[in-house]
Amino acid sequence: MGWLSRTFRPAADDAPDTGAEHVEPVDTGAPTADTDVPTADTDVPTVAPGPAAAPAPSTPLAAPTSTSPSAPTTDASSPSGRYGPLVCVTRFDTAPAELEWQLPLNGELYRLMPGADRPDYSLLVLERPLHFYPREGFDLRRVEAEQQVQDRKGRTMVRVHALLLCARFVGQQLHPGMTDLAVNLAYVIDNSLARDAEVDFAKIEFAAIGFLSEGHAPRAATEPAREEAAAEAATEQTTQATVAAATEPKEPVTSDDDSGGRHTPSEVLDELATTLRRGIEEQRGAPVQRMTAALTLDTDHRLTGLSGNADGQAPVPSPDTFGRLAEVLGRLARLDGADRVAAVTVRVDGDAVSHEVTATHD
How many Å apart are CA 291 and CA 315, to the nearest integer? Predict the structure, then answer.
């Protein structure tokens, strides 16, 4: 692992970033001079405002779930920067919308870090600071005041200078020449993580599932009008992750039991949580103990968005689950007082199931 095992620390006089121009922050202060995560003398990437990121508790990144060997090698020709090998994230599998707008994420692999669950986490120092909307319930006291900025609409965003990542699948590792290696990504919200002997999961926040490649990717120029249009469109969203093509909803299935008004909206929403949980368990082949998932619905009560966290991983159910979810949502649409539901957050904690309607259609 010589390619990733550097422990070099930056000089104390590393210059801070130039501020979060893209969000027109009220507070443009950079991290303090004694910050432990190095920063770059570059502009902040363009980003448009969006709603708060989907709930994702501060837990260890997901352990690998599949096999696809990819052993690391040492390659002197690999592009390197000041701190380590150059890498980039050019696309995501699951991520909040504000991260999509900041692609590509270029950076350098700063050091390898062991964690309580696996020995091969890597600290990625970003070329440009990254900004995200804290999820509902996120304790802003976990981040320094200098890391809190505001977007054009006055909403709080958190600025980070590094990500913690690891290969998503068993048998895979970061290696020279990698292209689109699936990785779990977490925001480093406490820069002192850079000097810790091992990963402190209280200093990170789950971010996304993405694909990592060697080298840096060019940034495409964004036309102002297009950027503004994207910002306005994002304002109307209630969650950021979109359902993959495999989640195309099926026609709701009706039954005689549904038409008699025997169910209440509360019961159906709890059933929605239980159905999603079972689908995730089917996909993983393992039980789910804790889950928080945000679902968005169109005016016909078809599922259009799914994001959140289930035992530290994205809440990805089996393909068949989406048909069952469509059936439950079809019953919800026929209940008085539930026909305007546009977004709902469902939660599972052991045997306890709960829900919260977070948005409604006009």
Answer: 8
How large is the greatest C-alpha to C-alpha distance in the chain, in angstroms? 72
SS3 string of the chain?
CCCCCCCCCCCCCCCCCCCCHHHCCCCCCCCCCCCCCCCCCCCCCCCCCCCCCCCCCCCCCCCCCCEEEECCCCCCCCCECCCCEEEEEEEEEECCHHHHCCCCEEEEEEEEECCCCCCCEEEEEEEEEEEECCCCCCCHHHCCHHHEEECCCCCEEEEEEEEEEEECCEEECCCCCCCCEEEEEEEECCHHHHHCCCCCHHHEEEEEEEEEEECCCCCCCCCHHHHHHHHHHHHCCCCCCCCCHHHCCCCCCCCCCCCCCCCCHHHHHHHHHHHHHHHHHHHHCCCCCEEEEEEEECCCCCEEEEEEEECCECCCCCCCHHHHHHHHHHHHHCCCCCCCEEEEEEEEECCEEEEEEEEECC
**Measured between alpha carbons, how far is residue 272 from residues 189, 259, 295 in Å?**
33, 18, 10
How much is the pTM? Answer: 0.49
Token couple for 242: 């979109």
pLDDT-derived band at 267, boundaries 50, 70, 90 = confident
Q: What type of residue sits at position 212?
A: L
Residues 143, 289, 304, 104, CA torsion sign? positive
- Please report the pLDDT score of residue 39 as a whole number: 65
pLDDT at 87 > cutoff 60: yes
- Contacts with 56 (C-beta within 8 Å, 6 or more apart), sequence order: 135, 205, 206, 207, 292, 308, 309
- What tens digit of pLDDT does each residue of 88-135 get? 999 999 999 999 999 999 999 999 999 999 999 999 999 999 999 999
Give the tens place of pLDDT for each residue, 296-318: 888 888 888 888 888 878 888 88
198 pLDDT band, cuts 50/70/90, is: very high
pLDDT digits (tens, 9 = 90+) for 268-279: 888 889 999 998
Q: What are φ and ψ of residue 148, in 5° steps?
A: -100, 120
